[in-house]
Every structure is written in C-alpha cells, then in structure tokens.
Amino acid sequence: MLFFTPGPSQLYPTVKKHINTALDLDITSISHRSDQYKEIHKAVVDGLDELLNLNDQYTVFFGGSATEMMERVLQIRLVKHSVHLVNGAFSKRFYQIARAENLDTTIFFRKDGKGFDMPMEEIPGHADVLCLTHNETSTGVITPLSFIESVKLKSPKLKIILDVVSSIPVIPFNAAAVDCAFFSVQKGFGLPSGLGVLLMKNTFLQDVLTADDLGDDERYHSISSWYKYGSKYQTPETPNVIGIYLLGKIIHDMIAVGIDKIRAETMHKFNLIKKMVQAHPDLSMFVGLEKFQSPSVSTISVKGGSQRIVSKLMTEGMQVGFGYGKYKMDQIRIANFAAHSIKDIETLCDAINNEHF
Question: Most exposed of 77, 176, 284, 286 (fewest Cβ within 10 Å)?
Fold first, then answer.
C-alpha cells in the first residue's frame, strides 16, 4: 500500500532497514544515560543543523508530539501575551492551548483556504510571541516566507514560533526570522509517530532560562529541564530512543541525497498533482491562490464527494487522505513528502486521471 495520507504517511524507503538494524543493536534496551545514547542524540542535533542549514543557531529538544511542543512553548514564563494567526484546525489548536494556559491572546482569522500576506493587521506592541502555522495541514494553505520575514522586520522584538509539522524539511523556513519551530516525525520525515522535536534559537533560549525559576526544573518537560539534560545530549526521562535513533538515520540519508534535490523534486511532484487536478473535470484545488497552495499537502475538492475516489484508490493499493473535519466527504488531501518518489506521484495521478467521480 502506498500512503499519501498527510500523517501518519508513507515511511521513508530506508526506515525498515534502520528498524532491523536498531533491533540487531538492541537500541531499544540501552540506557538513556549511556554514552551510546548520547551519540544517538548528538547525531540528530548535528544532522538537523546540517540538513536545515541552521548554522548552530538552535538548541534541539525531544518530546512526545508536536501538540506537546505547542503547550510547552506557551508555558514559558516570559510569555504573557500571544498572537495567533488562524486559518485552519491546527493553527486554531495552537490558539486553544494558549487560552487553556490563561494567556492574554490576540487572534487574526482567515477563512478556510485563505492565507496570510502583507499588509498585516496591527500586532499589539506588548505581545510577546507570534504563533503561526507554516503549513496548515487541514486546509493545504502555506504561509509565505516573505510574510514571516516582513513581520519580523516590522516587529524585531516579537518572538516568532512556527509550527513546521507538515512543511519540514521539504519547505524551507528562514532561520533568521524564526525564534522557535517544532514538528513531529510522522509526516515530512516519513517515520512512525511518537516523537516531537523543538528547535529553539539560542538567543531566545537564554531569555527563557533567565525568566524560568528553579521550580520549573521539577516540572515534566520544561525548557529549563530539557536544557539541563540536553546540554549533555540527554533527556530528563527515558525518551523514545528508537524514534530518535531512526530520525538520526533518516536525516543522514536525506543529507546523502541532498536537501536541494529533495526540495526540487517536491516542487516537481507538486506540479504533477496540480496538472492532474487541472485536467480532471471532477477536481479543483481548494486553495485558489497559487502563493498559498502548499507543495507538501494538496487539498482537492471533489465533485460528488470524496468517498468514491478514496475507495477506488484503495482497491489499487493507494490511500489518500479524506478532507479534514467538515470537509471530510467533500475533499481529499494528498501528501507530497520526501518519502514519496516521483514514480509514486505519477502512479497516483495516472490512477486518478483514469476515473471520473
């Protein structure tokens, strides 16, 4: 079965080999305080820095999921007022967590399928952080880098926290403009779920550590406790060791392929999907403006409903995602991650082209 679902999604081609190696090496049984684990942890930190061209600007922390990372960054003591750009279910979730943390909040909405771009409404001068979703998985809308950069230029003291769950690593973000980013591994990295990764810029981290008191050291997953152990390539408690090991191996494999090649192929595959949609009488891109169309998650409206196309593709060994939430029966979502080869996308497009729905 080929999985074009937007998460969990298709496994990266080398994952099975690495899982077998991990089992042969008893990776699942090693101590998270051992030198062997420290090497695994360090390999991911160094690999992310190289793959994403972070230039040693960020510190890496491991948790359970991207949703946990949303919560952790909004529990930072220096964050009193958060601004949220909401244009789908996951950016809305970020806002809901801020409300649950009793933060003062400002929210800007866009209708489903719409994106954020210049000019931007006035952001309160006393706001501490801007929380936005780089790639809204529920609707297939991307936030242009030019917009993020313009906000940072206009409000340099405002810390930008970026959800890159379904954009990393195939869609770049500007490290100079982003103070914090987080993701989980079951989408863009083609791995089993159960691992969240937080990238915090070192300048932001120092401010956070200064603001935190010692009591946070005893809290489950605070930035200060993560840093205390992370500086030694460890975690506060026993982590998802095999997940971290596999992430390090996949990062290494991606570096060997070359991130520029991976990103170029992503755009080529995206263009194949768009061409297929444009030629099909029963399909249309949900996101109208090209500058807001996500290359990694295409949301497609289906005349007559999505059930038939999803069921038909299943019989041919391919699974695409239904629409999200209220759009479940009206749309499909097609993931286009590094784990999906050009041949995979061509096979999917050919199968869809041969059917009317």
Answer: 176
